[in-house]
Write a structure and sequence with these properties.
Elements: H1 6-10, H2 28-49, H3 55-62, H4 66-73, H5 75-94, H6 97-116, H7 121-135, H8 138-149, H9 155-162, H10 165-184, H11 200-208, H12 210-218, H13 239-248, H14 250-282, H15 286-317, H16 323-342, H17 348-363, H18 366-375, H19 382-412, H20 419-451
Helix pairs in contact: 2-6, 2-8, 2-10, 2-12, 4-5, 4-19, 5-7, 5-8, 5-19, 6-7, 6-8, 6-11, 6-12, 8-19, 9-15, 9-18, 10-11, 10-15, 13-14, 14-15, 14-17, 14-19, 14-20, 15-16, 15-17, 16-17, 16-18, 16-20, 19-20
Length: 452
């Protein structure tokens, strides 16, 4: 018996080695990454949603119907977003995610500023398209880099922080957009070169485009992490293998994409048309709606997206391995009666209360869905799987949601004061569809988890 073995024989009680966590705690660089990415995502949503509070002045200046205006909210942004999402998804799988994020932030900030310089409908349309194309960069690059920067057990928490961005950004767009719009109406810029002829809504766009440039500079300090669970030789996953993975797991991917795309309709339809509903039906001012609804979106949306991982963790400890998909299912079910309630509200205060409850509920599953998708997807196709998610969510949420509501208002109810009813019907149907598809995705999700 060797000398090294003697102490083991003399201490039989030590029968196993201590358990060592194979994944260390996140580094300071990882937390800085989340901080900057959350700022970037927040700024991107300010840029894309500030237009929602400018409905009235844009309609007045350009003589637009709700349907034509919805094309600025939806199609102009979404067409470019969809076109560039697969490109950025593939680049995120094969290249530097840091460079993608920096370039994207600079470009969407420029596009937002160009919206403020638009002199006609089509100039504004194409400037919005520039914003959409550039913002397609953030989701695939950010999701991939986050998943590689944090230990597996903390990925849902990291995503919940990052996904506060839409609610903080949407709230800021409403709060400060409304206040800035009201303030700009009293400004005398006649003596200021280039700015003297601008309308107040144009000033709002110009100001909204500034933060993204500063955030892009902050991104210079983030680190590109090593790709976890990727081939050691750094080889790319061939498209044929990517396709086979999607096909082999279609019971999860197909239903997941359909279910979450339907839920995203609710997420985008409420912020797009709730301000108009409150102003048209109850006579509220843009500043009042911006502050009150903006605070509601910011607070309850942030709470919801942070609460999602807490609820899922509680369910996982009780044996529900599919908790990351089960919570979205229950959230979609709850949104059906919430959406119908919007059609019945008798007062401004009740409408705000329903919108607040909806904001919490549709934000609850967002971090969980993103985390679940990353966890069951091979590393070298995480970017493309995220871009497919962005694609289908953009078609339905960014593209279809504002226009579906507008079409009902213009051509079914034929009364712009009925926008609340249009919003209610659209969101209730979308929530029911989401519950149906996510329930079907649950079985596929459990099967794929078992293969990991």
């Amino acid at each position: 018996m060797s000398g090294a073995a003697i102490p083991l024989a003399e201490q039989p009680q030590e029968t196993s080695a201590p358990v060592i966590d194979p994944e260390p705690a996140p580094s300071a660089a990882a937390w800085y990454l989340i901080f900057v990415l959350t700022l970037a995502y927040t700024a991107s949503f300010v840029d894309r949603q500030v237009l929602n509070l400018l409905v009235a002045p844009l309609k007045a200046d350009f003589g637009l119907s709700d349907t034509r205006l919805s094309l600025l909210q939806g199609l102009a942004f979404t067409a470019a977003y969809i076109l560039f999402s697969p490109l950025f998804g593939r680049l995120a799988d094969t290249g530097s995610r840091k460079r993608i994020l920096i370039g994207g932030a600079m470009l969407w900030s420029l596009g937002t500023s160009l919206c403020g310089l638009a002199r006609g409908y089509w100039q504004l349309f194409f400037a919005r398209a520039a914003v959409g194309g550039a913002e397609a960069s953030i989701t695939p690059a950010a999701w991939s880099i986050i998943a590689d920067s944090f230990p597996t057990r903390m990925i849902p928490r990291a995503f919940s922080i990052f996904l506060m961005g839409p609610y903080i950004g949407g709230g800021i767009a409403l709060i400060f957009g409304g206040l800035l719009l009201e303030a700009a109406q009293g400004w005398d810029l006649a003596a200021v070169p280039y700015l003297g002829a601008l309308r107040p809504w144009q000033v709002v766009f110009l100001v909204a485009g500034l933060p993204g440039v500063l955030i892009a500079l902050m991104m210079l300090r983030i680190r590109e992490p090593i790709r976890k669970l990727a081939p050691r030789d750094g080889a790319q996953m061939p498209f044929a293998q990517v396709w086979r993975t999607f096909a082999d797991r279609r019971d999860f991917y197909g239903n997941f994409y359909a279910g979450m795309a339907s839920l995203v309709i609710v997420l985008y339809a409420f912020p797009a048309w709730m301000p108009a509903m409150l102003m048209r039906r109850f006579g509220a001012s843009a500043a009042t709606v911006g502050v009150q609804y903006g605070v509601a979106v910011l607070v309850t949306g942030s709470i919801g997206v942070l609460a999602g991982p807490v609820i899922a963790g509680w369910m996982q400890r009780r044996g529900y391995i599919d908790a990351l998909m089960r919570v979205p299912f229950f959230a979609a079910l709850a949104l059906i009666p919430i959406s119908f309630a919007l059609a019945l509200v008798p007062s401004y205060e009740m409408a705000i209360a329903v919108a607040t409850l909806a904001s919490f509920t549709y934000s609850l599953p967002q971090a969980l869905a993103s985390s679940g998708l990353q966890m069951v997807t091979p590393n070298r196709m995480r970017g493309i799987s995220s871009s497919v998610y962005v694609f289908v969510a953009s078609v339905m949420g960014l593209g279809a949601a504002p226009t579906l509501v507008a079409l009902l208002t213009d051509h079914v109810f034929a009364d712009e004061r009925s926008v609340g009813l249009s919003l209610s019907v659209t969101c209730a149907i979308a929530s029911a569809a989401s519950a149906f598809f996510v329930s079907r995705a649950l079985k596929g999700y459990r099967r794929v988890l078992a293969l990991q």
